[in-house]
Design brief:
The protein is an all-alpha fold and 96 residues long. The protein has a domain of 63 residues. Helices cover 57% and strands 0% of the residues. It has four helices and no strands. Helix 1 packs across helix 2 and helix 2 packs antiparallel against helix 3. The protein starts with 27 loop residues before the first helix and ends with a helix.
Length: 96
């Protein structure tokens, strides 16, 4: 499901700051579309914006937090298409 949506990572023995490649797997068009949608979501969707801020507060970099938002957005879209349901933030973001 999340092919090509993972954040870049350093291979064993590499410094993280020297590793700036993106994931080569998956569709670059899908990756770009989810990135743009994620940027829009953190501005206009309260729940995804709070997810983004939560990831930032956990120490993730901005791009890594956007990847998390993109993955969540992909799961939401998949669920809507699979179940034929509408978007319900109460169902998607369960309060624990």
């Amino acid at each position: 499901m999340d092919r090509g949506l993972s954040a870049p990572f350093a291979a064993e023995g590499e410094d993280e700051e020297d590793h700036h490649e993106h994931a080569d797997e998956g569709s670059s068009t899908l990756r770009a579309a989810l990135y743009i949608a994620s940027v829009s979501c953190i501005k206009h969707n309260r729940e995804l914006s709070s997810l983004y801020l939560k990831k930032i507060s956990q120490g993730k970099e901005a791009k890594q937090a956007l990847v998390c938002v993109g993955k969540k957005l992909a799961y939401i879209m998949y669920s809507i298409l699979k179940n034929g349901s509408s978007y319900d933030p109460q169902r998607v973001f369960l309060q624990v």
